[in-house]
């Protein structure tokens, strides 16, 4: 077990304060909260337990900075964001260290997150100069109509702990590119990496007040409520649970602000008899076990057709048995701890419930107290059926439940039998099957013959109770802009002689 305190090449990236109007400040209330390493339980540092008053100061700063930032050309904003992207990559090692330290994920996953986060800054630095409008033919020959896109204004961004800088960058990139200013509320369980990229934003030339960051743990609901009810904030972007998303949507109703909600998932992962088995196994590992199963697009229900079921289970069990669970700073570690004890308890509850109703543990299934209270064995469950909790609830842990199915119609019906619809996965070598099933699945995203679904160039988001709006891509820019119609009347019509 690694217990030494990690060091940074640039210690100034480690900062435990709020960032408001270009200044690093304590909370008005003077209180702080502790941040601990989920792998060791050791103290990392403290951050401000911000109050509504702190959030108000951040909103005021963003509102004051908005006119000047929106007035810059897209090319000017893009150059600043591009420099930010470069600085994130230049400081990849230190940021990855912070992510592993406060989040627990294996070093290789943390380094991957830094590159992933930077890709959004790169993408939107290029999109900033490509905010187009339209010229619309008017029904009256003496009238002209044009449509322009404008930034919505001050935005409140609320990010989760599982991808503390990637989710921030996926929101900050389009918001700043569009000309908006922002208040970023980072998750209290992983605030230091978010502060680090704010340091780099300042170095890149993001003007004071354009980006503001507030931290909190216990006061998170109060700050979220304030942001939703603020008339100054014109858009909320939130990544988190469906339960909290509903609350934020309700709290935003009075101010009629825009909402982007990337909420819970229960992703089906479908493997047909004709699938490339090795490809399906690699996809399962990438989708199910990345970050120890703590992603919203994790394969939560793995449906394998009868003819390949036994071979699939045997092969996946062999691969999972090679995983090395441990502290993220250990070079041999492939999978780190869960974020806290409550997450472990939920995973154990799902495993116990499945076993109680007839499932069998092929590998894993237990806590790992010798490593610490937040570790759980990578687990495969077989003989799983739809009665079990794991079929209807998002596990958010390293448990792969393998369901058996017989026909295409059957698996489509079972896959769609969920209140959420974020991601889905499909493995087959038959183009007809791929076309039919991908179109029939009720999900915002379908990955075909791969376990990787997110990219800066592709829209990310779900349907049903998985949320509203899209992030990433040119579509993700739309949520940070509003349309303005401009009508010009009394245009003198000149009749030109035909040449």
UniProtKB/TrEMBL annotation:
One of its GO terms (biological process) is gamma-aminobutyric acid catabolic process. CDD domains: ALDH_F5_SSADH_GabD. Pathway: Amino-acid degradation; 4-aminobutanoate degradation. Pfam families: Aldedh (PF00171). The active site is at residue 262. The keyword Oxidoreductase applies. It comes from the Eukaryota. InterPro entries: Ald_DH/histidinol_DH (IPR016161), Ald_DH_C (IPR016163), Ald_DH_CS_GLU (IPR029510), Ald_DH_N (IPR016162), Aldehyde_DH_dom (IPR015590), Aldehyde_DH_Superfamily (IPR050740), Succ_semiAld_DH (IPR010102). GO terms for molecular function: succinate-semialdehyde dehydrogenase (NAD+) activity. Its EC number is 1.2.1.16. It catalyses: succinate semialdehyde + NADP(+) + H2O = succinate + NADPH + 2 H(+); succinate semialdehyde + NAD(+) + H2O = succinate + NADH + 2 H(+). Keywords: Oxidoreductase. Residues 24-486 form the Aldehyde dehydrogenase domain. One of its GO terms (cellular component) is cytoplasm. NCBIfam families: SSADH. Belongs to the aldehyde dehydrogenase family. This is Succinate-semialdehyde dehydrogenase. The lineage of its organism: Eukaryota, Fungi, Dikarya, Ascomycota, Pezizomycotina.
